[in-house]
Amino acid sequence: MFKPLELYIGLRYLRAKRRNQFISFISLTSMMGIVLGVMALITVLSVMNGFEKELRERILGMASHITITRLDNGPLTDWAMLGEAIEKYDSRVVGLAPYVRKEVMLSFGSQVRGSLLRGVLPDRDPAVSDVWQKMIVGELGDLRAGEFGIVLGVGLARKLSASIGDKVTVVTPQASNTPAGILPRLKRFTVKGIFEVGMHEYDSALALVHLDDAARLFRMEDGVTGLRLKLTDMFEAVPVRNELVDALPGGYWISDWTMRHANLFRAVKIEKMMMFIILMLIVAVAAFNIVSTLVMVVTDKQADIAILRTLGSTPGSIMVIFIIQGVVIGIIGVLLGVASGVTLSLNLDVVVGWLEGVLGIQFMPGDVYYINTFPSELHWDDVIKISAISFTLSVLATLYPAWRASRTQPAEALRYE
């Protein structure tokens, strides 16, 4: 299709001459528009991919892939036998741990904060949670039955002004009958450790205690709130949950991470799609600039087109000459955009850190957003999709001006020459 003559003439028209420097300037701006659009799309989608991955990993680092509780919200007393049956039934379950979960008030000195208290078994909880990897002071193993130790999130510890060795009072919503009347149940716990998972939701509200201490505090005896399961593949949570629903007897409520956080991840997916559409408009604007550029080129080259037609060039050859210009603009713009977008995506943490240092601000404070950094994960399928759409728009933008050029009548074009 692209013969040497058409290619030579098309490339020649791209070079600036004294009388058409303005047209060449518009061609340059069209190319830069494609570069900026492709770069912005790759960078933004990489950030969205990284944000979704970080969000999923941090949530599932503290939450569980699948959770099993009683349908009536009562204590689960047969959790040991139930756990053994599940592990034998499905090899995709690689971790299983019981837990106790209650909402309480924590007080230390003059500070009082609401908290989510979770009772765990330190020897089993690492199989379903990453909190043991996020300890900044102390260890999860420091929680021992009967010692009433507690591990606080870094934000919660900061709000309470509590540190290692301090005595924190846990106030439960359950009441006790005493000679002085009905009083809330209180228990003092010693701070054994502090963790930081990087999510404000957990760092500022979660506290961990030993499972036996939690059961004694809430008078659950041998019962627990439920079981937490970890799978070999988190994306198998839905089919595994469905199989467990059919396999286990009635009376259990089985939920997975997609049910508990469905709205959040759906919002991230919709936001990613909308950002793709909005930023693609930048490329569309650049494509419209290509249309205006080629229309002016066709008008400026009426005499040249007429001479080529009289020398035997076909309408198809004339059309190819002007398509080549759009193709070259698209190829160069897409290549430069991909190169700059990939480079920026792979070094985004350095660039954002430098900008925060220069401007003296934090773009994503941790008390406002789930994640206080700009994670970036480059997906090459996104790069290929962006490049293909951008190049296609560039080629489509050339069709109408090229068709108009091919319809030029030599006699009409040379009448006033």
Structure, explained:
The chain is an alpha+beta fold and 417 residues long. The protein has 2 domains: 4-58 and 264-413, no CATH class; 64-259, no CATH class. It is 53% helix and 20% strand. Strands 2-3-8-5-7-6 form a 6-stranded mixed barrel. The longest helix has 42 residues, at 21-62. The model has no long low-confidence stretch (mean pLDDT 81).
Total number of helical segments? 14
Summarize the helix and strand pattern as letters.
HHEHEEEEHEEHEHEHEHHHHHHH
Question: What is the terminal separation in angstroms?
Answer: 31 Å
Helix content: 40-55%
The spatial strand order of the largest sheet comes to: 2-3-8-5-7-6
As a whole number of angstroms, the C-alpha radius of gyration is 33 Å
Strand percentage lies at 15-25%
**Secondary structure: number of strands:** 10
Mean pLDDT: 81
Query: How many separate structural domains?
Result: 2
Largest β-sheet summary: 6 strands, mixed, barrel
Q: What spatial form do the alpha-carbon principal axes imply?
A: elongated
Structural class: alpha+beta
Q: Which segments are poorly predicted (pLDDT under 50) over 5 or more consecutive residues?
A: none
